[in-house]
Amino acid sequence: MRSRSIYALVWLAAGALASASQAQLSVYSGLVKISAPTFDGKAREGTGFVVATERRTAYILTAAHVVEGSPRIEVSFYTAPNDPSEATTVGLENATDLAVLRAWIVPPGVGALRLAAAGSAQPGDAIQILGYPLNARDPEVASGFFSRREGSHLLIDARVREGSSGSPALRNSQVSGLVIQDQGRAEAFAVPVSILRAALDGWRVPFRDPPQISTAERYAQPATSGAQGCVGLVAYGEGMMPLRPIPSNQASTSSLVGEGSEVTVLQQKGAEGKLWYLVSTSVGSGWIPAEFVHLSQQCSPS
């Protein structure tokens, strides 16, 4: 009995590590290193992140002062760090220090980061900053929090170094703000997500939000029987939810699904209150508590 308990703990720990690894890869897949020298040839580097992809191109959000006036902008995606692509400026605004670039050649595996809801970024929020400080070859992570508001900005309490401008400030794997590292200031700050959304809308960048689910739908209990074969949406309000791996599948690893992800129910087990669905998603299959699945169609009892 003791050996079974130890095995279960090891299995759960392995699943958690796999989930963390996949979450990291998912976020990093939208990270971009930017090189934008000035007209006189002075090197200038920063960070950006993908907010939308369209027809094999990518829209990249960054800080305006990183790219303004550069005769040639090159972006290196995390998924292909040794294969830079040329990018052009779609929109630039000095008042907010925001700019959107469009890269015309995008390597495989690039994904858009998800923006948090407008107004969700608040002082006291713990954040992680992903970027390429000091022209780092590989991205680095700085942990901290939003300390207080200053005008429309959120000041950051974290170690933010040169080259971090344009980095995403992440909370629950969603972008809460864009980091600005100004050498003339003692503290770095973030442009909050509400301003990011407004700027992207103004520049007509085709970023997409997942399907919205009402509060009533979010907490509605799904059917306790006859769910097999039904299609539904994940209704989990805390970012990404791990799918529990299928123990019988040796190749199965823990995957993550986000709010609004579409799932197909393959099997169910348990009873009301402790009901689980085995679901198929675009990132794999696994078990998820039924309370976090909103069925989008009526199902007849089996």
In short:
With 302 residues, this protein is mainly beta. The chain contains four helices and 19 strands. The radius of gyration is 21 Å and the shape is globular.
> What's the CATH architecture name of the largest domain?
Beta Barrel
Q: Number of DSSP strands?
A: 19
Query: What percentage of the residues does DSSP assign to strands (E)?
Result: 35-45%
Question: How would you state the average pLDDT, rounded?
Answer: 78
**Poorly predicted sequence stretches spanning 5 or more consecutive residues:** 1-24, 211-225, 248-253
Strand order in the sheet with the most strands: 1-2-3-6-5-4
As for the number of domains, it is 2
SS content category: mainly beta
Oligomeric assembly: single chain
Q: In CATH's first tier, which class of the largest domain applies?
A: Mainly Beta
The gross shape turns out to be globular
Order of helices and strands: HEEEHEEEEEEEEEHHEEEEEEE
What composes the largest sheet? 6 strands, antiparallel, barrel
Q: What is the name of the CATH topology of the largest domain?
A: Thrombin, subunit H
Distance between the first and last residues' Cα: 36 Å
Report Rg: 21 Å
Number of helices: 4
* Helix percent band: 10-25%
